[in-house]
Amino acid sequence: MNDPAQPLSVLRPACTRDSDEAVRGRGIQRATLVAIITNATLSIAQVAIGLFANAFSLVADAAHTLSDLVTDLLVLLAGRRGADPADTNHPYGHGRIETATTMLLGGVLAAVGIGFLWSSGLRLQNMEALPELHPAALVMALLTLAAKEELFRYTLAAARRLNAPMLEANAWHARSDAASSLVVAAGIGGSLAGYPFLEPLAAAVVGFLILHMGLRLAWKAVGELIDTGLSEEELARIRQTIEQTPGVIGLHDMRTRRMADRVLCDAHVQVAPRLTVSEGHRVSDAVYLRVRSAHPEVQDVLVHIDPEDDGDLQTVPPGPLPERNDVIAMVHTLLGTSAIEPKRIQIHYLGNRVDVEVLLPAALPPDGEAALQQRRRAWLAEHAHYRSISFYAQTAP
């Protein structure tokens, strides 16, 4: 049963969000399974043709493809775990699993790029050691190149559709595989045509590009792990949505951070200083719903309601403000022996001072009213934290 304290307008977006996360998780798993099947099939074919055609570079590329299966399985696991709902130990969900996996894959890409650069240098020094190859090796290398490029395009499209940086990192990993297959095809084709230097030269270029891509993805993931905020353009759009919400008269101290494809936001929203608690809470709900509706990437909005701009608080008089119990005791002191119990006491903490409004069930007699006002003026003169104390009598209906 739904919590009766929660309005349906708040509960429904939460249900929709959980459903969207489940669909997204299944999409990531489906794309990763396609990559696993493709890499497994290609690696077996590369080993078979490489051994048959004496193409050791093709066998090495098969070993590289087999290593990709490990990262594919890692992505599959992260996709399942990242879609898990929030729990006691992870109140914000498991999206950071995707972030950590993205950083790991970025490191793998960087390592692959360095490996190509190192390998190209060694090959340039030992060009005479290149073996004589069978033409079947070139056919297999081209087929592998086409399959890896198609896998890259498929995975990248899925990553952008699902807004999954982790899957995008894996897509570029597939592109690095296509690049390695291109290097193998260029090397085999160059050897068959009598130009063996093409393989190490292409390996150096592709290795640099892969290294750059890996570092860029890893750096992006690190930025998310250290809670880097959104860009100024994205902040401006969210800020505009909040400021246009009815009841909001000011906004300050807005902060954001990313968690995988989602954004967490918190903001101090200024409202009219004498709103009731319930009306201020309603403004907070309105801000939450408007931001979630206008910015689907925002997963949660924590709204802190302020009756004034915190940055403009007065610093005098010094010392802590009186608590509610202190104010109630003060009211009873001012009422003295009148034996009248206030119906309502409202306290407004504004400008580092206190305004008190007291509603009495009936008017005091003239002499009692005069004595009350005299005690009120004396109290205000002696207690600098009190700006005003007002007494009102309830009128008959």
From TrEMBL:
Residues 230-308 form the Cation efflux protein cytoplasmic domain. One of its GO terms (molecular function) is monoatomic cation transmembrane transporter activity. It comes from the Bacteria. Residues 33-226 form the Cation efflux protein transmembrane domain. It is a multi-pass membrane protein. Gene3D superfamilies: Cation efflux protein transmembrane domain, Cation efflux protein, cytoplasmic domain. It is found in: Membrane. This is Cation-efflux pump. It comes from Thauera propionica.
